[in-house]
């Protein structure tokens, strides 16, 4: 695709606050955006969280709405906590995220960019419904994403929140995004490169994220860890470090999204950035630090089965989420009436599982019940029953938002099989 370097609309300097903002009681302001006219409706439009918008010919995925919800909640919390919100939506498609950041998160300013200038009129049409271009709350550009980020960086025009929603692996945008983000700012990045995180292209993942990734049963979590690890490495190169606030995997695509805070200073140890191993022989997983590299093996290994351990890394081995931050997001979603409104409470369920996953006792990965059952040659007990038996034995265990039929736990596979067999004996007797 050939990108033209054009900028529509106006200078970046004139910021103005369209919606009055009261940090003590945050309100989603989407309802103030006027509806489409009947003529516009006839030409096709969508609704997300009550906001009407047009997609024109732009790439748009309805299924990504949850990822957008999470981004809007986080952006709004940033405004509550810092009193300001300047957003760069670097690959904005039809501009739905920009629209929601303006209308719902109360962004002071949004720079909406998409390399395809044919989407320009759709983006402008959508954003104009929040405020006129003359108000200076938004600007639309059609630049290559690295170019637009570096332009802002060179003008020392930094952002509180940068959204990089690309196709495939977005590692080529990471450095520009980190340069252009304020310290303490939030980076929301996406990868749709499930093939690499599944361990099917280790040389590609090595080139893109610096991680040699092999097939593992919890490869979708590995995908999130590969993405966070890639950002952590880029941030360290520039003298910063990151904190993951949440990590979200969605099977459609598949899509890997992480929200990270950028912090001042390098971390001078390799904590949370190392290697993970999965043993095909016994099904147990292990974390390895850099100084264990020469001694990597599984305790079940014998010379006969020494090849049973596969290792991926280096990647992020630390927490995927900040539980307290997720609770703030959930409370905000409740305040906005987003919970329970779809009849399924799916956003609430998702965030609650993510909160459970953030228990610091839980290591990386998860045990798939199908795998456990096939190793044990039994039918798996119900997930809930197995989880409570694990809790009774003193293990930490939670559901996984990534895999519905899996348990995230510090209970080793061998012990999990023992517990499952005990439960089956009890149920037969
Ligand atoms: C996944 S879509 C964005 C979807 C949008 N954020 C949403 O939520 O609906 C990716 C967009 O990036 C644009 N794009 C792809 N490569 C780009 C690049 N190098 N620079 C700028 N835009 C690019 C495409 O035109 C496409 O609209």
From TrEMBL:
One of its GO terms (cellular component) is nucleus. One of its GO terms (molecular function) is tRNA (guanine(26)-N2)-dimethyltransferase activity. It comes from the Eukaryota. InterPro entries: SAM-dependent_MTases_sf, Trm1, tRNA_met_Trm1_C. Keywords: Methyltransferase, RNA-binding, S-adenosyl-L-methionine, Transferase, tRNA processing, tRNA-binding. The keyword rRNA-binding does not apply. It catalyses: guanosine(26) in tRNA + 2 S-adenosyl-L-methionine = N(2)-dimethylguanosine(26) in tRNA + 2 S-adenosyl-L-homocysteine + 2 H(+). GO terms for biological process: tRNA N2-guanine methylation. Its EC number is 2.1.1.216. The keyword NAD does not apply. Belongs to the class I-like SAM-binding methyltransferase superfamily. Trm1 family. This is tRNA (guanine(26)-N(2))-dimethyltransferase. It comes from Cajanus cajan. The lineage of its organism: Eukaryota, Viridiplantae, Streptophyta, Embryophyta, Tracheophyta.
């Amino acid at each position: 695709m050939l990108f033209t370097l054009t900028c529509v609309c106006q200078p970046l300097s004139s910021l103005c606050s369209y919606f009055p903002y009261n940090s003590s009681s945050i309100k989603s302001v989407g309802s103030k955006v006027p509806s489409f006219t009947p003529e516009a409706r006839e030409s096709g439009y969508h609704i997300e969280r009550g906001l009407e918008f047009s997609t024109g010919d732009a790439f748009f995925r309805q299924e990504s709405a949850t990822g957008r919800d999470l981004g809007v909640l986080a952006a709004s919390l940033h405004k509550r906590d810092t009193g300001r919100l300047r957003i760069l939506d670097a690959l904005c498609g039809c501009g739905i995220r920009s629209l929601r950041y303006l209308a719902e998160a109360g962004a002071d300013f949004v720079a909406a960019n998409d390399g395809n200038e044919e989407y320009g009129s759709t983006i402008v049409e959508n954003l104009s419904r929040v405020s006129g271009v003359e108000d200076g709350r938004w600007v639309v550009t059609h630049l290559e994403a690295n170019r637009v980020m570096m332009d802002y960086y060179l003008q020392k025009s930094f952002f509180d929140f940068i959204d990089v929603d690309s196709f495939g692996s977005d590692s080529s945008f990471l450095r520009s995004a980190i340069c252009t983000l304020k310290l303490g700012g939030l980076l929301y990045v996406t990868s749709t490169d499930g093939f690499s995180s599944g361990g099917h292209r280790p040389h590609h993942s090595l080139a893109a994220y610096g991680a040699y990734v092999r097939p593992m049963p919890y490869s979708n979590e590995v995908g999130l860890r590969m993405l966070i690890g890639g950002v952590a490495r880029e941030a360290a190169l520039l003298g910063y470090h990151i904190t993951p606030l949440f990590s979200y995997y969605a099977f459609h695509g598949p899509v890997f999204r992480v929200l990270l805070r950028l912090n001042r200073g390098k971390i001078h140890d390799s904590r949370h950035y190392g290697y993970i191993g999965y043993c095909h022989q016994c099904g147990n997983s292990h974390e390895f630090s850099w100084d264990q590299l020469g001694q990597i093996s599984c305790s079940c290994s014998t010379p006969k089965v020494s090849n049973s351990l596969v290792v991926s890394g280096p990647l992020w081995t630390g927490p995927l989420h900040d539980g307290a931050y997720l609770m703030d997001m959930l409370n905000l979603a409740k305040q906005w009436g987003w919970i329970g409104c779809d009849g399924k409470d799916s956003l609430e369920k998702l965030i609650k599982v993510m909160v459970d996953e953030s228990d610091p006792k839980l290591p990386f990965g998860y045990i798939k019940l199908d795998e456990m059952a096939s190793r044990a040659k039994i039918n798996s007990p119900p997930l809930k029953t197995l989880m409570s038996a694990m809790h009774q034995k003193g293990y930490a265990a939670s559901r996984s938002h990534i895999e519905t039929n899996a348990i995230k736990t510090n209970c080793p596979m061998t012990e999990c099989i023992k517990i499952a067999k005990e439960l089956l004996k009890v149920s037969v007797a």
